[in-house]
Amino acid sequence: MLDHIGFAVSDYAASKAFYEKAFEPIGITLLMEVGAEATGGESHCGFGRQFPEFWIGTGKPLAGCLHVAFTVDTRAEVDAFHRAAIAAGGRDNGAPGLRPQYHPSYYGAFILDPDGHNIEAVCHKAT
Q1: Which of 5, 12, 20, 66 could form a disulfide with 117 if both were Cys (CB 3.0 to 4.6 A apart)?
Q2: Is the dihedral of CA 5, 100, 91, 83 positive or negative?
Q3: Is 72 in contact with 26 (CB distance < 8 Å)?
Q4: Using an 8 Å Cβ cutoff, are 77 and 123 in contact?
Q5: Other residues' Cβ atoms within 10 Å of the Cβ of residue 76
Q6: Can you tell me the distance from the alpha carbon of 73 to that of 51, in angstroms, rounded to the nearest whole number?
Q7: Cβ(22)–Cβ(78) under 8 Å?
Q8: Does residue 16 contact residue 57 with C-beta atoms inside 8 Å?
Q9: What's the pLDDT tens digit per position in 95-115?
Q10: Which residues, at least 6 apart from 9, have a Cβ–Cβ distance to it below 8 Å?
Q11: pLDDT tens by residue, 18-47
């Protein structure tokens, strides 16, 4: 349904470093960076597996909390994402585990990024 999502962060360099480390175990990498000289004002970087789907940038940061969930293939990837994101400075917002209130196989983990946004990795498979 969505092609990509983007939002401004309060500290571009810190958030970029956080996401590079947090996304590494789930195969999401920094694929593109566009500087202020190209956009006429703001800097942006895009993360993804094949093309940039998740963008952060400079500018006025969001007020409130954004929630974004990334689908992964295994529960082990959910666990690895959670460990990497904590090591990168994220705050735990829900340890890896089943969330049967969503459906019986919903296995997810939640992290608050440097701006307090709720970032999730989720596996929908039964094992």
Answers
A1: 66
A2: negative
A3: yes
A4: yes
A5: 12
A6: 18
A7: no
A8: no
A9: 999 999 999 999 999 999 999
A10: 15, 56, 57, 58, 61, 114, 115
A11: 999 999 999 999 999 999 889 889 999 999
Buried b (16+ CB within 10 A) or exposed e, 38-57: eeeeebbbbbbeeebbbbbb
- The candidate with the shortest Cα–Cα distance to 31, out of 15, 51, 16, 14, is 51
**pLDDT score of 102:** 96
Helix then strand count (H, E) for the chain reads: 3, 8
The CA dihedral of 38, 40, 43, 47, to the nearest 10 degrees, is -50
| pTM > 0.90 | yes
Structure tokens at 78: 């959910």
Q: List the end-to-end C-alpha distance of the chain, in Å, as a whole number.
A: 26
